[in-house]
Amino acid sequence: MFETREGETLLAADPAGLRPDGYLVFLGRIVSPWASRENCPKNMRAARELGRAATVVIDEPYRPGLQSLERASHVVILSWLHHAPRNLIVQKPRHAAEPKGVFSLRSPARPNPVGLHVAKLVALHIEAGRIGIDAIDVLDGTPVIDIKPYYASTDAFPEATIAGRDEK
């Protein structure tokens, strides 16, 4: 699914085969319109432009944790990008002139493939464990590891930049 490009560096040991330091549980799955990596949007902005909604389905034991989530207009979803390689530490993005360290990129290929998605909350059905969101940039069936309310008052940095570029 992922090919190694010139200038990229792999880790000596693949983190997927190492003993974990902590224990992670999947809280549910994302029901997404995207079945293949080729048609999946590369980021949330591109996903929103396509106008395809998605649903987060939370497993029964964790549904009480959804109480009061309707107070949030947006949510932060942390996902486990289970198809991504975990041993690529330096990457050469197609659009970049030079290789970059994984921690300077938003690529899914990383030692711990955690996805970060800020989505608009459009529906909530606690008993069914269903959270309707405006868009998503992951494949159908992607595991969910956490959900948090997005607080514009504390989470937003209007002045934020990356690599000297304004990212507004």
C-alpha Rg (nearest Å):
17 Å
The sequence of SSEs as H and E is EEHEEEEEEEHEE
Return the structural class.
mainly beta
Placed side by side, the strands forming the largest sheet appear as: 2-3-8-7-4-9
Question: How many distinct beta strands?
Answer: 11
Q: What is the residue-averaged pLDDT?
A: 91
* Regions with little confidence, pLDDT below 50 for 5+ residues: none
Strand content: 25-35%
Question: What does this entry look like structurally?
Answer:
- The chain is mainly β.
- The protein is built from 2 helices and 11 strands; from the N terminus they run ββαβββββββαββ.
- A 6-stranded antiparallel β-barrel has the order 2-3-8-7-4-9.
- The protein is globular.
Secondary structure layout plus pairing:
Blueprint: E1 9-10, E2 28-31, H1 44-50, E3 54-58, E4 74-80, E5 88-91, E6 100-101, E7 114-125, E8 130-133, E9 143-149, H2 152-155, E10 161-162, E11 165-166
Descriptors:
single chain; 168 residues; mainly beta; six-stranded antiparallel beta barrel; 11 strands
Structure at a glance:
The protein is mostly beta strands. It has helices at 44-50, 152-155; strands at residues 9-10, 28-31, 54-58, 74-80, 88-91, 100-101, 114-125, 130-133, 143-149, 161-162, 165-166.
